[in-house]
Structure formats: C-alpha cells, structure tokens
Amino acid sequence: MGCGCGRESATGNCVCDVLREILDAQEDVIENCCETSCERSINDLLGETDPGTGLDTVPVILYCKDSCKPFKGFGANRYNDELGKIGEMQASFIFRVKDIDDDCCAVLELLRNPNDPCKCDHLHDPCDQETKGLDNTGICITVDLNCFCHVTCLPAISVFN
Fold it and tell me: Which InterPro entries does this one have (predicted)?
C-alpha cells in the first residue's frame, strides 16, 4: 500500500508506521532515495552509525492532520508523589514513543528539560521549548495516530542514564 510521504505503508498510516519503527528500535536498545531525519535517528539509536552510543530514545514532534500544526501534549504527575493530589501541569511538543497498539493508538511520554521553569504558558511552538537536556517526565498520554499527518524526528538521545 502506498503512502503520501514516499514510503510503502504497512498500516496505511505513515505516522503510525514510522513511530512503530522507532518503538521497535528503542525496544532493541532497552528491554522494556535520501536519508530522512527519522531514518538517521533510528540508525544512530541502533548504533549503526557509531556503535556503543548509549542512546535510547528518538524524540518526535507530531503534526495534527486538520491544522498541520505541531501537537502539544499536556499532563501532570502526582503532587510530591501523594495519592489523590495533582501536581503542576506540564506541556511538551516533544515525545518518546512508549507503545503502539494494532489500531495505531500510541502511548507517548512528554519529554522536557527539567531545568526549564516554564511548564505550559510559554510554549506556543516547538522552537519555544528547551531541547538541551531533554529528559523523561513520567507523564504519558494516549493518542490516535490517525489524527496526525507528519512526524519530525529529532537526533537520538539518552533519557535513561
């Protein structure tokens, strides 16, 4: 089955297929015509360009199908790990793929720089987000990958040091 982004598609959804490929590559690293940025990041993650890199994550930015704008996810952890109390809301345009089911529903973890004091209000566009020192937040959201038309892969990083 063909796909509008110049690749063959297993599911009919390019975004789903690329994220599934990233997930498979990440799981290989951690239990639990031209080269595109996603392919390069996947190769870096798998150590095909430089073995023994210790990289474990391909950060992604997704673009909503209807607006073609970058998707911003929101969530919160528990306040001081207390059951029944919600901590400060956080937002991110950058995610780590955690899981994808057969219907192309994905669990994504928000990635943020823990030293970036602003959590939501200043993020109007991915360029507003601090990318140096991205780390996992433990905040996961579930999305329908059929709602996205584009994925941008950032260089592979390590969030599980």
Answer: Spore_coat_protein_Z/Y
